[in-house]
Amino acid sequence: MSELLNRRLSLLGQGDNLSLLKQCLHGIERECLRVTEDGRLAQTPHPEALGSALTHESITTDYSESLLEFITPALADPAQTLESLENIHRFAVSKLGSEYLWSPSMPCPLPAEEDIPIAWYGTSNIGQLKYVYRKGLALRYGRTMQCIAGIHYNFSLPEKLWPLLRDAEGGSGDDRDYQSSAYIALIRNFRRYSWLLMYLFGASPALDAGFLRGRPHQLESFDADTLFLPWATSLRMSDLGYQSNAQAGLTPCYNDLASYTDSLRRAVATPYAPYVEIGTHKDGEWVQLNTNILQIENEYYSNIRPKRVTYTGERPIQALVARGIQYIEVRCLDINPFLPTGIDLPQARFLDAFLLFCALEESPLLQNGECGQCTDNFLKVVKEGRRPGLQLHRDGQPVELKAWASELLARIAPLAELLDRSQGSDEHARALATQAAKVDDPALTPSAQVLASMTAHQESFAAFALRQSQLHADYLRKEPLPAEEQARFESLARASLEEQARLEQQEVGDFDLFVGAYQASILAISN
């Protein structure tokens, strides 16, 4: 353990400081496809009974009309965050009729590319903006890729914790800048160590063969309908996913907030020749918001993002530049197909200890090729993380994954212990022990269990996933929401539909001008 981490642990373990750790906030976003009874993509519109995808704060859609996204509030107790997530699932299932929520990250057998419905948000300018943005994604990356689902874990440390550290360490800078640089340091450590999350929680070692649409690949056949890699943890996070030449040169290396926001701002304002050739309109219809490397900053695909809650009409970069980083969003987590909500409390407890370790451990700048080494380690683990004797690179030297993982867990243990002391429990230590068992025995990892279940049942990936989807639906239906909670969700759904109608009735101004103003807002930011 570094001297810095030691000092910080001792400071946070004292008196009132310890209770600060009970004020970390946790929010979860879970995406999942709606599928038919026979496990095909549902091509029905977003169910009206779930409310408006544009204005509902807990239930929306992501890329496709069929790709639901459930969003919890940010709460101090992750057990309550998960309860909120489960309640959203229970409500959704009560409104889906004969449709199911697809259990894993990799999609069900998909229809022809052009038959995957793009999410529709109504006729308001902001609704149309969201729709055209998705048309642009279809044009740039294809619709198939956008049907991959994941879990995003949002995490923040209490704002009072940062000045405490700064003053104890004789740091300088105002609260906002110190907090932002501390979150950027967390992100650098996350880049160094996130391969561990892929090993422990990766759950997509196989996929439906039709997903690749006949493109060349290096996967093996599991059966006639399924492709896989025998040692893979997360094909979702491999280079099978987003192949973006435009984004290839875009690697913000997280050495400070200004360089991060700058690189994104440039990407949103820099034309990319192949997109320029297509243009923004075809036959008088919008096909993409602009012809730049990114249409908007959220198009940048990364495993973790610095975030700040935005005001109405404000863009994510504007919020970061104006008010600094408020929390981080972990974006590389697969949905665990064995769990009804895709994630459970032991995983959340471990993530908290892991992220606290990333935040408090020393985090030198990423230089001399370390950025590339982080990416290589990550990609190696997603494709062959369970391979016996697999070697990664640390400081340019080979190191066995198993040895490095055990060492990391030993370094995270004091953070788990600190969190347990603050909460008077042993849940973080127990969650850590569960992960240590997976390092000792790769058969305990979700990726190995997916393949073991498919083998035991002699079934394809799609058959396995549908079976799990049916089990989860049965579990969620068996215990419906209490009447008042069901009524609260019904009321939220109605209110969101009314809000969308109000937006559409009161809309003023032409959509083309609206897009122009939206584009101009990013160019007006100067660091």
Automatic annotation (TrEMBL):
Transmembrane segments: none annotated. One of its GO terms (cellular component) is cytosol. Its EC number is 6.3.2.2. InterPro entries: Gln_synth/guanido_kin_cat_dom (IPR014746), Glu_cys_ligase (IPR007370), Glut_cys_ligase (IPR006334). One of its GO terms (biological process) is glutathione biosynthetic process. It comes from the Bacteria. NCBIfam families: glu_cys_ligase. This is Glutamate--cysteine ligase. It comes from Pseudomonas bharatica CSV86. The gene is gshA.
